From TrEMBL:
Principal EC category: hydrolase
GO process annotations (BP): methylation; signal peptide processing
Protein name stated in the entry: Leader peptidase (Prepilin peptidase) / N-methyltransferase
Transmembrane segments: 12-34, 89-108, 115-132, 166-184, 204-232, 244-265
Recorded GO CC terms: plasma membrane
EC number in record: 3.4.23.43
Family classification: Belongs to the peptidase A24 family.
Keyword list, A-Z: Hydrolase, Membrane, Methyltransferase, Transferase, Transmembrane, Transmembrane helix
Native organism: plant metagenome
UniProt domain Prepilin type IV endopeptidase peptidase: residue ranges: 120-229
Upper lineage: unclassified sequences, metagenomes, organismal metagenomes
Sample GO molecular function, one term: methyltransferase activity
Length: 271
């Protein structure tokens, strides 16, 4: 099913470039608006909680200033808020170009097959998650969890790897970072990463399988160290400052998918 060729290679690559350019602009806008809408919803929930607590305290009347200390969703959605400001055109153009390139590489890697389309879904989701995490240090469950289930469905009939490999990849991927998180917290008293990173690696494990986890962790760690040191040298980050890990996992996922570092696929076409 997944390996059946429906389109010629040349047409598949051309179509991938077109779809990638369109999808990239939409992903840039979504990466801009989604975290802001989430923050507005959280602010509204906090305001409602404080207002309800103030109203139920015995012997105290609710103070109108209590709820006003936290912005309401209406204020967060007002025209003057960040939510009403669209992403810049250079950012949208750059994202469209990157997405088009990723889709073209995916079409070149898998040809005119349904597996190429599935790979584009994974690459688009990784690009979106990388953009959101880089800008806000958030990895929304509304993206990571459906991505995990989609990986299991793709591998139900052996799309990229076998179903047992996919299930084990999801479980072990989550546990790897969960254990690392708690070991780091036990030793230092600080949290080294967010729970969204666990879910993202689990999703990548579901797509690429258990055997892909070493490469995913290696590439993400190396790229994180290199970029982190570069940011410190350039003065863009302070020494010891926590940096989001999601973008590096996304890069590792794209490299592993396109390079073939998963079960049954030779690395970069070698072997």
């Amino acid at each position: 099913m997944w390996q059946t060729v429906y389109l010629s290679p040349a047409f598949a690559v051309s179509l991938a470039a077109f779809l990638g350019a369109i999808a990239g602009g939409g992903l840039c806008a979504l990466a801009h608006y989604l975290p802001r809408s989430m923050e507005a919803r959280w602010a509204e929930q906090c305001r409602e909680y404080l207002a309800s607590r103030a109203a139920t305290l015995p012997g105290e009347a609710p103070s109108p200033d209590t709820a006003d200390d936290i912005p309401t969703a209406h204020a967060a959605l007002a025209p003057s808020s960040e939510l009403s400001v669209p992403p810049s055109w250079p950012a949208m153009l750059a994202t469209a170009l990157v997405c088009a390139l990723l889709f073209v590489l995916c079409a070149w890697r898998f040809g005119g097959t349904p597996l190429a389309l599935a790979g584009m879904v994974l690459l688009g989701a990784l690009l979106l998650l990388g953009l959101i995490d880089f800008g806000t240090s958030l990895l929304p469950d509304s993206i990571t969890l459906p991505l995990l289930w989609a990986g299991l469905l793709v591998n139900l009939q052996g799309g990229l790897t076998s179903l047992p490999q996919a299930v084990l990849g999801a479980v072990v991927g989550y546990l790897c970072l969960w254990l690392l998180f708690h070991a780091f917290k036990f030793c230092t008293g600080r949290e080294g990463m967010g729970h969204g990173d666990f879910k993202l690696l689990a999703a990548l494990g579901a797509w690429l399988g258990l055997s892909a986890l070493p490469m995913l962790l290696l590439v993400s760690s190396i790229s994180g160290v290199i970029i982190g040191l570069t940011l410190v040298r350039l003065g863009r980050a302070a020494r010891g400052q926590a940096l989001p890990f999601g973008p590096y996992l996304a890069v590792a996922g794209a490299i592993t998918l396109l390079g073939g570092g998963y079960a049954g696929a030779p690395l970069f076409g070698l072997g």
